[in-house]
Amino acid sequence: MDTLSKKKVKYITSIDDLKALTEEERRELKKVVKNFGFRVTNYYLSLIDWNDPEDEIKRLIIPSVEELEPWGEKDPSYEKHYTVAPGLQHKYTQTALFLVGPTCFGYCRFCFRKRLFMEDSNEILFDYKPAIEYIKEHEEIHNVLLTGGDPLILSTERLKDILLSLSEIDHLINLRIGTKALAFNPYRIIYDEELLELFKNINKTGRRLYIISQFDHPREVNNISRRAINKLLSAGCVILAQMPLLKGINDSPFTLSELWNSLTNAGVNTYYLFQCRPTVGNKPYAVPIERGFKIYEQAKMNCSGIAKRIRYVMSHATGKIEIAGMTEKHMIFKYHQSADPENIGKTMIFKRNPDAYWLDDYKELVDSYKIENPFI
User: Fold this and answer.
1) Partner of 244 for a Cys bridge, out of 74, 122, 211, 274, CB 3.0 to 4.6 A?
2) Sign of dihedral through CA atoms 341, 346, 350, 356?
3) Are 88 and 98 in contact (CB under 8 A)?
4) CATH architecture for the domain at 79-369
5) Cα(346)–Cα(368) distance, rounded to whole angstroms?
């Protein structure tokens, strides 16, 4: 795939094109695709070992009939409650979120926003100018995250219009782009000099551009993705990596530590390990919280201090909650960020529940403690 050019990267959206699967397998998976969709690049398919029935990359991107098991909600983090206009969310005081990517390079089977691809949605920000005006009027906003979908699916010219408009707002400190292009289609970055020049120019404005990448398995960090990483670093971008904890994909201490060490060696800073959200269709990929915490702590044992800066969190409806500790009888959670500023820094201690997948599964609150916020 090293010789693959930008023009040869193709999207596969039909199960019938997966000739490595049997006819019976394709017939069964069409039932899943009717509900949740299917999309992948030929580059990413090339990473799959089709001879391994348990291949992690295959599990990450190829549909599974397990997804049809009833479980979860379409919007478990209740993003609709923080949507102030179509495609514009303002959940946390300092941060605004633009849903500008109408689709993705590939559909992760565990996507927490799969609702965007399941039905007609008005959640994508197509006319960004009113959103820009909203940012100008709210000086408490210090940073904007472009997400979706995947923002890098947009044309470079479209991204240029959005980023340059944001870079002219004085009270913004940094801009962020959430993307899995480095794993799904690194050629989007490698061969687009105009995109890299745009990123260089944004960084020269004094508004640092952060690339919030997603890498879910060590095999995604290869020579090709490293080329794209190096291009972004040369453009002055800061690259962070986040990933959900996923059953059958990265739910072992060895796999996670290998992933984190590979990323830091490539110049990417580890950021968040997410608890898989209880989204409809996600049950086969979810790991119970307490098992996840053990995996997380064991994985950090094989990492340097640089890699083990990563935090294990869940994006709950009320805020970003860190899974901070576990004792013989209790689980300890802490609000890393909150929709209600009063909750920032609040610690909660619950009696353990090994079957819990989400904060709401813990019923017995033992104690809570809030540090006084001097900024309120």
Assistant:
1) 274
2) positive
3) yes
4) Alpha-Beta Barrel (3.20)
5) 7
Q: How confident is the model at residue 1 (pLDDT cuts 50, 70, 90)?
A: very low
> CA-to-CA distance for 215 and 218, rounded, in angstroms?
8
CA–CA separation, 14 vs 205, rounded Å? 43
Give yes or no for a contact between 124 and 79, defined as CB atoms under 8 angstroms apart: no
* CA 161/CA 129 separation, integer angstroms: 10
In angstroms, the CA 215 to CA 183 distance is 6
- Taking the alpha carbons at both ends of the chain, their separation in whole angstroms is 53
CA distance 182 to 237: 14
Q: How confident is the model at residue 3 (pLDDT cuts 50, 70, 90)?
A: low
Which residues are CB-contacts of 358 (< 8 A; sequence separation ≥ 6)?
76, 275, 277, 278, 289, 314, 316
The identity of residue 55, as a single letter, is D
Over residues 361-372, the pLDDT tens digits come to 999 999 999 877
Q: What is the sign, positive or negative, of the torsion defined by CA atoms of 40, 42, 43, 48?
A: positive
Could you read off the pLDDT of 59-98 as tens digits, one per residue? 999 999 999 999 999 999 999 999 999 999 999 999 999 9
In the chain, CATH 3.20.20.70 sits at: 79-369
Q: Where are the beta strands (DSSP E) in 264-364?
A: 269-274, 311-316, 319-326, 330-338, 347-351
Q: At 262, is the secondary structure helix, strand, or coil?
A: helix
CB atoms within 10 A of CB 143: 20
The two structure tokens encoding residue 223: 């020579």
CB 253 within 8 A of CB 223: no
Neighbours of 68 (CB within 10 A): 18
Which two three-digit tokens encode residue 145? 């995250």
User: Rounded to 5 degrees, what are φ and ψ at 334?
Assistant: -145, 135
Q: Work out the average pLDDT over 191-219.
A: 97
For the whole model, what pTM was predicted? 0.95
Q: Position 318: which residue type?
A: T
pLDDT-based confidence at 5, cuts 50/70/90? low
| Helical segments of the chain, H only | 23-36, 42-45, 56-61, 115-118, 129-137, 156-167, 181-184, 187-190, 193-204, 223-234, 253-265, 289-300
Amino acid at 314: M
For 375, the token pair is 């900024």
DSSP code for 221:
S
